[in-house]
Amino acid sequence: MKLPFLIVVGLAACLFLESGARADEASHRAAVEKLFTTMNMEKTHAGSLENILQQQSRANPAMLQLQGTMRDFLNKHMGWSALKDDMIKIYQEGFSESEVGELNKFYESPVGKKSVEQLPTLMAKGMAVAQERMKEHLPELQAALKEAAEKQSKGAPIAPPPSK
Predict the structure, then answer these.
(1) pLDDT for residue 81
(2) Over pLDDT 90: what percentage of the chain?
(3) Helix 41-59 and helix 2-38, axial crossing angle in degrees, nearest 10
(4) Is residue 123 over pLDDT 90?
(5) N or C, fewer C-beta in 10 Å, the chain?
(6) pLDDT at position 84, please?
(7) What is the SS3 string spanning the chain?
(8) What are 62-100's pLDDT values in tens digits?
(9) Sign of CA pseudo-dihedral 90, 100, 82, 122
């Protein structure tokens, strides 16, 4: 008589815990979605994609003619609607629901709002600096690659990259 009762109680407890976990996940997801709205993530993401496109066009002027096709491709596969659910999962894994609440408070503050407004510009400037740095040191990279390729063609092992 006790065994069936314990089984029923155990099953009921599992169902209760599972429904509670789903409710917690739903509220966690809702908190992340609120954060994304507060951060104006869709607009910020679109600005980042546009910055990538502009950087590519500056680096390779031939890309100017293909910008429309590239923009369509980026929006289709890397646009906000394509990545939103994955980004929600990433934020849920990276931040507890309580932490997401604290982030929301920050991004609702004046300095938080300013950081959201400035982020695309700052990222574009950072990308430009990185691209310029790469251009400066391209001959060094080309020489290193040529040397490595020559060593490989002679059968010499190529040194592994330095460990961090």
Answers:
(1) 92
(2) 34
(3) 60
(4) no
(5) C
(6) 95
(7) CHHHHHHHHHHHHHHHHHHHHHHHHHHHHHHHHHHHHHCCHHHHHHHHHHHHHHHHHHHCHHHHHHHHHHHHHHHHHHCHHHHHHHHHHHHHHHCCHHHHHHHHHHHHCHHHHHHHHHHHHHHHHHHHHHHHHHHHCHHHHHHHHHHHHHHHHCCCCCCCCCCC
(8) 888 888 888 898 889 989 999 999 999 999 999 999 999
(9) negative
Residue with token string 């510009």: 121
What is the average pLDDT across 153-164?
67
C-alpha 85: how far from its chain's center?
12
CB contact at 8 A, 100 and 35: yes
